[in-house]
Structures are given as structure tokens and as C-alpha cells.
Amino acid sequence: MKFLTTNFVKCAIKTCDSSIDAFPLQYTECELVQQEQDYNPEFIVHMLERIQWDALISVARDLGNDGLPANKPEGLDAIIEDDQAILKDLHTLLLETHIVNGKMTCKHCNHVYHIKNSIPNFLLPPHLA
Amino acid sequence: MLPTPKFSNLDFDKVYEPAEDTFLLLDCFEGQIQYLNTQFGPGSTPVITEIGTGSGVVTTFVCQHVFPYGIVLSTDINPHACLAFMDTVTENSIVNPTVDTLQMSLTSGIRPNAIDVLIFNPPYVPAEEVPQIPESLQDSKWLDLALSGGEDGMEVTWILLHQLDHILSKKVGIAYILFCARNKPEEVANYMRQQGWIVDVVIHRKAGWEVLSILRFKRNES
């Protein structure tokens, strides 16, 4: 599961939907693997529109990365050198960083979900589904 | 005609084997390329989710030919399907910046109003009931979840349709859902139109003894 995906997944339990604590999940005991991917700055620029920045910072912190700017970078341009550096960093973090194994915990209900072999499992036991 | 993705190493005792319904979805998306490009613009990065992705053939086709820059998050309840999906993506050398598979029921673990393009080939076969989720990985019944749809073959599809407004992104969300004639798709379409959706039959085909159609759902903005 790519780091980017953490920006789209939440607790699967219905009653957590109304809580702001159900997203993002908290990531612990994560085994990360870097996997090279073609660098496409245009994609990063477009993709940023879909990103919830605060959630990104929160998950990055869980995984030991405090280096993200506090506010979402706006109007990045792949031709400008300073922007290039930011885009490259985001590329490395969001697309090349994979969580291969780990735990995701809902900060509202404390339910723990597992990531195994890069596949996160959101299936719930019958009494919670 | 665009080529069908390769899928040579899958175990079809555990994962739904691509069949007429799968191929209808491929033809559907081949025909929708222009429409979707107009909706999202070339080079855009919509969030795409196929529910019950199974072998991953449909998602792979969409990655190859429709949205090479999509953020792809496909789901399946069946753990064997999640693994098969990875195999298919690898076998077809998909180079999308992001393609992940998530094990879950429908879209239960994806944040609300995040999905731009939803694809669903549901368990549409009428059956006495929707099967229980097996407890062990070795259980032989995982595949049944891809087929048996309870009353009218619609039990799972109705759960999804009732959540559609909560699932699809607010501005542009579009869903493609496959039906067989026994699901009474005209009645479903009429009901959804009353709920404020624009519903179009985008493709329709007699496949053996089944008549299959794919309906497209989009919010009525006016």
C-alpha cells in the first residue's frame, strides 16, 4: 500500500463516520519499503488537489517524517527549481514509499486494522460489520 | 478494439474468472473514453475505485486505456482476489503512479465523497441469501461472494446504491454498475432518477442466457 493511499482510507465502522477522529488512521509498527517509480511532476501537481494536507502530515509523523511544510504547497511549477525539490520529495514520500506490513488504528473507536504483504484489510468481524 | 489485459496465472477456484460480464465492462469503458475525457480533462488524476475487482482485469484495462494518471484504489472482500489483482497489475506492467488494492466490503474503508469514478460488477445472481464472509483463508466459499446476490440478485447492489451519494465525489462523481435482466434494471433506474440521479444505459448485450446492461449514475446538478 502506497503512502498516498493513507490519505484515502478511514475506519470502516459506520458509527465512526461522523467522527473527525476516524480519518486519518494512526499508523504503528510499520515496515516501509522504497520502490522506484517514474517521476512525473505534472501528476504530483494534479494529485495535490486531491490531498487532505493535515492528514498527510499526521501519517508522515506516525512514520517518523517531520519534514513536511505546515501548509499545502500551492501553485507548484515543475519548471521552477525550488518547486522541483518539493515535488521530488512528495514523489518519494507519496508514490515510492510502500507500507508493506503494519497496523492502522482508528483514533475514535481504537479498532486495529492490519496491513499484510502491502494489502490493508478493512474487513470487520460480524458483530461490528 | 483495444486488447484485453493478460491474466495467465490466476486460480479460478478462488477468484472470479473473467467472463461475459467482465468483457462487457471492458467494451463499456472503451466506448466511454471520450465521455470520461470530457468530464475530467486529459492528464487529470481522478480517484477510481472498482468494487469487487476480482482478477483486476477491468481496473487494469481502465488504467491502460482510460486514466493513465488515475489514483486507483480497488477493493475486494476476497483476500485471494486482492492478491490476484496485484498479479494482474504486474503482469500487464501497469505504470500508473498509484494502483492499490484494499480488502474491504464495498467502499467501507474509503473516506466519504472521495471517489470520482466507481465501477461495480456486483454479485447479481438471484439467490436465497448473500453468503456469509468465510472465517478462514482456506475456506472454499470465498468465490460465492462474487456471485450470489440474494433477493433479485440485488441485495448487495441496493446497499451500495443507498450509499452512492455518500461515496461519490460531490462535483464529478460517476458510477458504472452492471445489471442482469433479473435485477430489473429499469425499475432501479427509475427509482434512482426519483432520488435525483441521471441514469443512462451505456451498453446492453445478450450474453448466453443472460441479458446484461451497464448503467451510468451521475448526480443531477440542475
TrEMBL record, chain A:
Its main location: cytoplasm. This is Multifunctional methyltransferase subunit trm112. GO terms for molecular function: protein heterodimerization activity. InterPro entries: Trm112 (IPR039127), Trm112-like (IPR005651). GO terms for biological process: rRNA (guanine-N7)-methylation; tRNA methylation. The keyword Nucleus applies. It comes from Scheffersomyces spartinae. The lineage of its organism: Eukaryota, Fungi, Dikarya, Ascomycota, Saccharomycotina. Keywords: Cytoplasm, Nucleus.
UniProtKB/TrEMBL annotation, chain B:
It comes from the Eukaryota. Gene3D superfamilies: Vaccinia Virus protein VP39. PROSITE patterns: N6_MTASE. InterPro entries: DNA_methylase_N6_adenine_CS, Euk-Arch_PrmC-MTase, PrmC-related, SAM-dependent_MTases_sf. GO terms for biological process: methylation. Keywords: Methyltransferase, S-adenosyl-L-methionine, Transferase. One of its GO terms (cellular component) is eRF1 methyltransferase complex. GO terms for molecular function: nucleic acid binding; protein methyltransferase activity; S-adenosylmethionine-dependent methyltransferase activity. The keyword Ribonucleoprotein does not apply. The keyword Methyltransferase applies. PANTHER family: METHYLTRANSFERASE N6AMT1. Belongs to the eukaryotic/archaeal PrmC-related family. This is S-adenosylmethionine-dependent methyltransferase. The gene is MTQ2.
